[in-house]
Design goal:
globular; 7-stranded antiparallel beta sheet; 9-stranded antiparallel beta sheet; alpha+beta
Length: 596
């Protein structure tokens, strides 16, 4: 059987966190280390990410749908799909197949072999704070104590990748599947470790090489035995990736039945986030090193200034929730219907608080259910629209918002600011309430968003939020009430990818494109589609019409939500009803009547 060995470099595009699973005395989530104390990405983590991508892509090249795509399916026999034949059966059982893919642990390496020869020192780690946001007052969620720290490796860190794959003589589709998945990683659509949806773990696969090991001859086997490294005994294969991709693409047009959760398309957005004045994504550890009470985040080693993806994600989700609730309240016009199915919960709110979170409702339902009748799996129908798009503790998110970095062409401009609290009685300053901040002045951050397998309503909702971001309606960072954090998005580049044009719901259908990225066809646009297009090139999609159709789908999704099932409904009206005073406290007007 042919035996292939792959070598490459995984270069982190953002900071990376691969957790150990256990906190220590100093950090809530330290980085994973081996017995020698070296930071490591386990081969199992890499193989798991490869398998997850392969599971979604295999049905599009005729590999069959794995049982992993079928929610609620109990596997009592080997699956037999292409993914299970390459990566091994999901569960160990009689006659189960072992994995044909072997992935080694990945350790930090130099970006180039010349740097390694001169001596390589692994990069140092950094600690970053994360905090949840209260949806009512838009401050840190102190009641939920949603603050924790993670140990990270900085962006630009490189890890050595080494894999071996054995394929059957009569199974060329196994090679094609490997090529399709690795092409995704080469295109930058790969994420490893924790916090991927919140800005961490984005990678680019560089310097990929493939060699075939000479198992088919006696001389080749002897050469392998004499070699200190099997890589040196392999024969380089020129054009391996391109040939397998070309073959895989011919299969996509013949696979008309696409199972649920299989790969269909993606939307990727690159933008520059520009501040209109002082801007400060604060960080306690950086502030302590600078001597200021508040200072921007910078990564050790590279010194690059960072806008955490988690901060931007929280701001975008908050704005998305406001849009959803406003539309629902306006269109529904009935507080009972709104209470029965709110389109956007508050992720940190308990079941007796305003906008009770989906997790709190499901937890209460599980407690009230008889033994054995609890919800073992959570489907999207159990969650509000916000949790479906942005994710929750019950369901991961397909929307990934990466850390933003200061544009490389720009030099950071820092300005110190002094603040002092006023005594409300004397009108003078309070001596014990003075603090300072070191803020960035009009910085530009490059940010990337990626939405996998988008639905029309998700695209419409995301475009509405991005429009608000472009118009400066979403402040970020420290000191918003002090005039800091006014930003707007500019220099958009949108990439809409689809394996086949029909995979993206649109009217009229998208015409085929000549640009390819892995298995996907790609359409590009260099601005938000907020105005009719009169200068479209021949064959270019009408992005404005597409956006209008997606926003229409979003409105329909909000206004046609069914009511919660009885066992999942909130205990009481948590928005319009008895808890309204928590959002809008009652006041007594001059005529003695209650008002707001």
């Amino acid at each position: 059987m042919p035996h292939f060995i792959f070598s490459g470099v995984l270069q982190a595009r953002t900071a990376v966190h691969v957790g150990s699973g256990e906190p220590n005395e100093a950090i809530d989530a330290p980085f994973r280390r081996d017995a020698r104390g070296r930071c490591v990405i386990p081969g199992t983590a890499i193989a798991g990410a490869l398998r997850a991508a392969a599971t979604r892509l295999a049905p599009r090249i005729g590999g069959g749908a794995c049982v992993a795509l079928q929610a609620g399916t109990v596997q009592d026999a080997p699956c037999g799909c292409l993914v299970c034949r390459v990566f091994g059966d999901l569960r160990p059982m009689d006659q189960a197949l072992a994995s044909r893919l072997t992935v080694e642990n990945a350790y930090p390496v130099a970006a180039a072999a010349a740097d390694m020869a001169q001596g390589f020192e692994p990069p140092g780690t950094l600690v970053r704070d994360f905090v949840g946001i209260d949806r009512v007052d838009r401050t840190a969620a102190r009641k939920a104590r949603a603050k924790f720290e993670k140990e990270l490796l900085p962006n630009g860190t490189c890890f050595g990748l080494r894999m071996e794959l054995t394929v059957a003589e009569d199974e060329p589709e196994a090679e094609e599947l490997a090529a399709v998945v690795l092409a995704e990683w080469q295109a930058g659509r790969s994420w490893l470790g924790g916090g991927a949806a919140r800005g961490l773990g984005a990678f680019d696969l560089l310097q990929l090489e493939c060699r075939k090991l000479p198992w088919d001859s006696e001389d080749g086997i002897m050469a392998l035995l004499r070699s200190d490294d099997v890589w040196d005994a392999g024969t380089p294969i020129s054009g391996w990736m391109d040939k397998r991709l070309e073959s895989a693409r011919t299969r996509t047009a013949t696979c008309r039945e696409v199972p649920p959760h299989a790969a269909r398309g993606y939307l990727s957005v690159d933008l520059h986030l520009e501040a209109d004045g002082a801007f400060l994504p604060g960080h306690e550890a950086t502030a302590a090193m600078t001597g200021f009470d508040h200072a921007p985040i910078s990564e050790p080693g590279t010194g690059r200034l960072v806008l955490p993806g988690a901060s931007l994600r929280g701001a975008l989700r908050t704005q998305a929730e406001r849009i959803a609730r406003t539309l629902a309240a306006h269109e529904v016009g009935d507080k009972q219907r709104f209470a029965a199915r709110c389109p956007a919960c508050s992720p940190l709110a308990g079941s007796d608080e305003p906008l009770a979170s989906c997790d709190a409702r499901l937890t209460d339902a599980d407690k009230a259910a008889p033994p054995g009748a609890q919800e073992t799996e959570v489907s999207e129908s159990h969650l509000c629209l916000a949790c479906r798009l942005f994710g929750s503790v019950r369901l991961g998110s397909r929307l990934l918002i990466e850390d933003g970095y200061l544009a490389q062409a720009d030099k950071p401009k820092l300005k110190p600011f002094d603040f002092v609290a006023l005594d409300r009685f004397t009108g003078g300053s309070r001596d014990t309430a003075k603090f300072d901040a070191l803020a960035l002045w009009k910085p530009r951050f490059h940010v990337r968003l990626h939405l996998a397998d988008p639905r029309p309503w998700e695209l419409g909702w995301l475009l509405l939020v991005l429009r608000d971001l472009s118009e400066g309606f979403i402040p970020l960072g420290f000191g918003r009430s002090k005039g800091f954090g006014r930003v707007h998005a500019a220099a958009f580049e949108l990439r809409l990818g689809a394996i086949e044009p029909a995979d993206i719901d649109s009217a009229p259908p998208l015409a085929p494109t000549t640009e390819r990225s892995g298995l996907y066809q790609v359409w590009r646009l260099n601005h938000l589609p907020t105005r009719p297009q009169t200068d479209r090139a021949a064959g270019e999609p009408d992005w404005y019409e597409l956006a209008a159709n997606w926003v229409t789908a979003w409105v329909a999704a909000v206004t046609s939500l069914p009511e919660w099932p009885a066992h999942l409904a909130p205990k009481r009206d948590s928005y319009f009803g008895t808890n309204l005073e928590l959002l809008y406290p009652l006041e007594v007007t001059t005529d003695g009547k209650p008002g707001r």
